Amino acid sequence: MIVGIIPARYASTRFPGKPLIEIRGKSMIQRVYEQASKSSSLGKVVVATDDERIKEHVLAFGGHVVMTAEEHPSGTDRCWDALQQIEGKYDYVINIQGDEPFIDPSQIDTLAAVLKDGTTELATLIIPVDNHEVLFDMGEVKVVLNDNMEGMYFSRMVIPYIKGVPQESWHQHHDYYRHVGMYAYRTDVLEKLTSLPVSSLEKAESLEQLRWLQKGFKIKCAITQFDSHCIDTPEDVEKVLRLMNIG
After folding, report:
1. Can you say how many angstroms the Cα of residue 23 is from the centroid of all Cα atoms in its chain?
2. Which of 145 and 101 is assigned the larger pLDDT?
3. What is the chain's Cα-based Rg?
4. CA angle 51, 18, 232 (to 5 degrees)
5. Is 157 left (phi over 0), alpha (psi -120 to 50) or beta?
6. Cis bond leading into 160, ω under 30°?
7. Average confidence (pLDDT) over 154-170
C-alpha cells in the first residue's frame, strides 16, 4: 500500500500563504489534492500542514489532513511526522509537491511502478534533457545513472563532461536527465532518513538527496515525459497557466 502525502506550509519567504491562493476558482492545495487523488496507485492522499487555516480549508473541500510540527527542516521530515498519524499500514510514502497544481496523475503512477517488488529504498522521477539551455541551467538538477536506473549522483553542474565536443552539442552525444522533484520512500527507510545529519555533499550543492546517497542509500529513477511546473512566486501563476494552455 502506498500513501501520498502533500506537505503544505503556510509560511513562505517569497509567497506566504501559497497553498491557499486561488487558481481559476480553486485553491492550489485543492488542485494538487484532486490531481493526486486521480492516481490509481495511491491507497490514500493526505495533506500534512502546520497551519490551522490550511487544515480547515482541506477539511472544507473533503480532503484528509493531519497537523505536523512547524519546525521541520524539509518535506521529508514532515512526511514522517504525518505518516505516524495516519491510520493503516503503508509500505511506501510518495511525497507530492504542494506547489504543482497541475501535476499529472500518471507521474505518480510511473513512480509507484518501480516500488512493486518492495525492495526499492527510495525512488524519484527524471526527464530527458534535449537542449543546451536546459542542460546548462544551474537551477536544473542533473542526475547520473548506473545500469540499474539508480542515481549515482545529482548535481547542478553538467555531468558527465564530454571531452573533445563543443558544449553546445553535449546533449547530442550523451543521454542527459534532469531531476523532477517527487520522492517515494519505503517507510522503514523514511524513518532512518529523518535521523541523518546534514552531509558535506548536501551542504555543497544544497540537495537533500545527496545526504541519502552519501550514507549509502539507493535511489531508483523512473523516466517521465511530463515536466513539473512549480509555483514559487505570485508571478508564476499566470506563467504556469500559459505553459499548461489553461485559459
Report:
1. 21
2. 145
3. 18
4. 135
5. beta
6. yes
7. 96
The rounded Cα 142 to chain-centroid distance in angstroms is: 14
Question: What would the mean pLDDT of 110-130 be, rounded to a whole number?
Answer: 95
pLDDT of res. 244: 57
Cβ contacts of residue 228 below 8 Å, gap of 6+? 97, 100, 103, 180, 181, 182
**H-state helical runs in the chain:** 28-37, 52-60, 75-83, 105-113, 132-135, 187-193, 200-205, 208-214, 236-243
pTM, to two decimals: 0.92
Residues 6+ apart with CB under 8 A from 1: 43, 88, 89, 90, 91, 92
Find cell 502525502 and name the residue: 5
Kindly state the helix (H) or strand (E) to which residue 154 belongs, with its residue range: strand 151-155
198-229: pLDDT as tens digits: 999 999 999 999 999 999 999 999 999 988 77
Angle at which helices 28-37 and 52-60 cross, to 10°: 50
DSSP code of residue 1: -
Give the Cβ contact number of residue 235 at 10 Å.
Answer: 11
Distance (Å, whole) CA 127 – CA 99: 19
CA distance 19 to 101: 9
Q: Is pLDDT at 46 greater than 70 in this prediction?
A: yes
Distance of CA 177 to the CA centre of its chain: 16
Domains for the chain: give ranges and CATH numbers: 1-103+228-247 (3.90.550.10)
